Fold this sequence. Notes:
The protein is α+β, with helices and mostly antiparallel strands. About 40% of the residues lie in helices and about 25% in strands. The strands form 6 sheets. An 8-stranded mixed beta barrel has the order 24-25-27-28-29-30-31-32, surrounded by 5 helices. A hairpin with a 5-residue loop joins strand 9 and strand 10. Helix 16 packs across helix 17 and helix 19 packs across helix 20. The longest helix has 23 residues. The radius of gyration is 53 Å and the shape is rod-shaped.
Amino acid sequence: xxxxxxxxxxxxxxxxxxENSKDAIVIAxxxxxxxxxxxxxxxxxxIPNDRDLSPMxxxxxxxxxxxxxxxxxPLEETPLFRIIDGDQVNDLEIAVKTKNDEKxxxxxxxxxxxxxxxxxxxxxxxxxxxxxxxRSELKLKESESNYQNIVKMSSEAIVIHRNNEILFVNxxxxxxxxxxxxxxxxxxxxxxxxxxxxxxxxxxxxxxPLEGKTEEATQYKVTTLKGNTVDxxxxxxxxxFRGQSALLSMxxxxxxxxxxxxxxxxxxxxxxxxxxxxxxxxxxxxxDGNFYNVNPACEKLSGYKYEELIQQSFIPLLKKEHLEKxxxxxxxxxxxxxxxxxxxxxxxxxxxxDLVITNIPIIVKGVIxxxxxxxxxxxxxxxxxxxxxxxxxxDDLTGLPNRNFLNEQLKNTVVNPESxxxxxxxxxxLDRFKFINDTLGHGIGDQLxxxxxxxxxxxxxxxxxxxxxxxxxxxxxxxNPDEDDANQTAERLLQxxxxxxxxxxxxxxxxxxxxxxxxxxxxxxxxxxxxADLAMYAAKQRGRNNYQVFTQDMNKLVERKLKIxxxxxxxxxxxxxxxxxQPQNDLNTxxxxxxxxxxxxxxxxxxxxxxxxxxxxxxxTGLIVPLGDWVLQETCSQLRKWLDAGLPPIRIAVNISSVQxxxxxxxxxxxxxxxxxxxxxxxxxxxxxxxxxxxxxxxxPILKQLKELGVFISIDDFGTGFSSLxxxxxxxxxxxxxxxxxxxxxxxxxxxxxxxxxxIDLGNNLxxxxxxxxxxxxxQVKLLKExxxxxxxxxxxxxxxxxxxxxAAVLKSNVCKFTSK
Length: 821
């Protein structure tokens, strides 16, 4: 930066006052070359102001004299050079004669202009024109007779006073004091118009003998007759007035000048205060992008001190990837276009800070000198915004992408049927997750969902997308898979679920149902998700724990599910459900010793709907609770009728869903139904699957309440669940029912025979009843008797019977026996 530029930068703040000042002001460099003048100086001294002038040039436009207007001042002793050389130039009176021979008198004041390291780089000189005042004083000296006329016509206020009493005022003074004429002021004290704050100063100055000299100018504030305040610059001189010594005060109205100066100073202070105390980081850059001023907030933000930043480029602070963008905006700012943009810097501590920066060009006299920069730290805001965006597109629990993310992914996926690229969607839903959530608690359920997410991600490829839609539903987008990738991925997922999930030092088993949909030959990408969902539902319909690939026929399954779901509630109201009873027989005597109640539904339009189709839907919708309540009530009501009709007492087993067991106040309901129908609790057996043992802490109190009522408790489908056998010793159960799946190959598979024998032995050793389901032939009966099994049920003895046929079967039985514990 040139010395001229530095000088102009330092005085640019005062440009408004500089240009509009009535005083002549000149600015020179350290060699005395005039580099700038205001319009008043040009008018007074006649030198051009459109270019720089060397000392030899500007000195040719006028001659400078000492205040006697006779002796010329050498160039090297002129006020300008005296200031540059370090002399004080304060209120120095000189006379100037211009080329047109006009001579004027001035009071000169000036100061050096220093650089940031206190080196002298120039000078500023202000010439206050006192020609009129000098002429007035001269004329007063020349003729007392003409003195009053001269004073009266003076543009400056003149007041003659003795012992503080006003003896004479000119028109300018009358005007300033806002009086009507001299009579308003004559005879009054000058202290009547000075503000009290200035009384002491004025009193001292009027009491000092001047001995014919003019006292230096002093500023006072006076109050006019109309209550206004005026600033005056007053000089004091001792004169002879009407034959006696008096004082002449000559005052110049400097109200506007002072107001302008005060406004300028206030503006400068406000700017400095704003700059230094602003909470945002503010800096100024030169044309090369180097810092030449920074505020404390900028120091704090960058981590660098003022001294470390000044004259240094901003570029090292930037992140490399933002350099090109920031340089572009910097260049635009230098073309007088304000800029607003975001970028990131790295502070002294190595921390990355996100900023919003506003660049504003610094323009002085139409020339861009640099730029202002204002920085707002948006690191926290941007982090929060990123978190919000992440939350909008990711699942809080698992951290996986959510439905919104998946929809965007599908929306932006373009599948070209003519190309080899394709997309496959795998829809995975956990089986019986609601039961796990209800029995083991939501905390365990949440942990299971998290571990499932991790297990899925460990199986799929890195380029594939795993998302959690809601609840226990997961979706996998396979990117451009091979022909068998989707099926193989599904098989690996199913196999991985064979391993238990370890949660809070507890093994939790879960299976899943999977649906697959492929984009090959399809243009509607959005339908992939719907089709995969349909395929998953088909997997549920086929017994869960399997996968199905979407076919168009699956739409019918969904339509049927919706019809069943809609018809469940009305089916209860319209008595569409019936109870069937499958006898339980003594294997040695074939006598009927009990029965299991089975629910049947004959829909008026859909016909017979099997339980394994509508029971899962009832559990999903929560209708299993009122449906189970109805079964319990109907069973006990029918049992009461049979007892009243003289049938022997037979224990009836009712299946209880896990949804009913937890949260539906099952013990209270059973007690009410038994009391309402006057049924011995021993005649009612509640059957539930062994999965109830997964949450021992919650189910054990309920089972104990049922036991206290006296009802019989049976574990159904024993051997197919995942619970520890260790729980059997703590649960208050009476019976184990071996699932029919163990009988399919029991006659030819030694392993199945060994498993069944182990369960029978386990039950006998624990003094529990053991029942085997699904007996279909006499060879199975024979083998079971050899294994010490006493009770069985199945089509070999009887299929499930409506109440009338079951009643007949019981009556036909020669002997009915009731066994209790």
